[in-house]
Write the structure tokens for this entry.
Amino acid sequence: MGIMILKAAWASSLLVAAIVLTCLACSVGYAASPGSTEPKFTALPRDTNLEISLAPARGPRAVIVYGSGAQWTKAAAEEVRDLIEKWSGVRLELADDLTVTSERTWLICEKYFRTPLVVVGNARDNRVCHALGTRFLDYSNYTWPGGDRFIIRTIFEPFTADVNYIALQASTPEGMQAAVARFEQLLHGMKPDPSATIAHTHLSRRRQGQVAASLQRQLVWSTGQLRRLVQECQRNRPPDKGQAVPGLV
């Protein structure tokens, strides 16, 4: 009797599941004609844009975000604001990272979720960079890019559609000064439009001396490793036929 009840319950569950799946298939328009294996639905295309409009015709203006605990990022943000105003006539607002992100999650708060951001600093000093890191879009810290090196890049839709960011990232004040100087050169090479649009960008700099020194260290290390490997092979080389093995004669 118990087995029959279980079978009936199982059959009822299968029937309910079949009905639910049928409804879902109808709701998304997935209906194939007899003899056809192709679904009868079409994708909905949308335009994508790798640029960032600082003053879009529709939507809020961009906000420049600096690290609340790093005064050098605020000074850089003010310079960036002045450069953008001089280039396009658009004066953007400044905000610190604590204002733009949630205290509970450290992610972008709802007020700024659909706002283009100009991010200044690194993930140790600016929580917006930390939020980007949760999407594997930021790896900056006190070590990387390091020294007087920097990265300037546009970031495509990090959190929501049609909202891009641009980041000026550096580990030190010296690196950020170099980034701001390079950003000024970047703007001079672009013709401003009413929406103050910045083209897709990815720029970086490494000191040539550090690159050469790093390559030299790697070459010295590799040469030493190769020498030790050859010596080890020679020591462990099996004796030729007819040659006495040392220690056995």
